[in-house]
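Box S1 | Example of a co-folding query
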Amino acid sequence: MRLCPLCNGLEPSPTPSMLCPFCKTVMKDEGMLEGFYEPYSPYLPYEILDLVDDVDSERDCVHLFCCPHCGYDQRYHCPLLTGPEFT
Ligand SMILES: [Zn+2]
Ligand SMILES: [Zn+2]
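Box S1 (continued) | Returned holo structure for zinc ion
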């Protein structure tokens, strides 16, 4: 079984290492990118479809981080935890 530490609250959010490249503000975790596929939002911008195109869902959980100061957003590929303790 694979677990995303961010989704499961195993790592602090926002992640301290995620700093906005423009204003150095700690970026905010907007959640899994997959969350944008919720059925109640049928109209997906093509950019979002492009964003998830290269996602290896077997390996990473992709989160969208957003800078609360300047609005810059960025994907973060969070490595999944694996191991017998999660089975
Ligand atoms: Zn996650
Ligand atoms: Zn910023």
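The two ends are 5 Å apart (CA to CA). The pocket of zinc ion (ligand 2) is lined by residues 20, 22-23, 25, 67, 69-70, 72 (CB under 6 Å).
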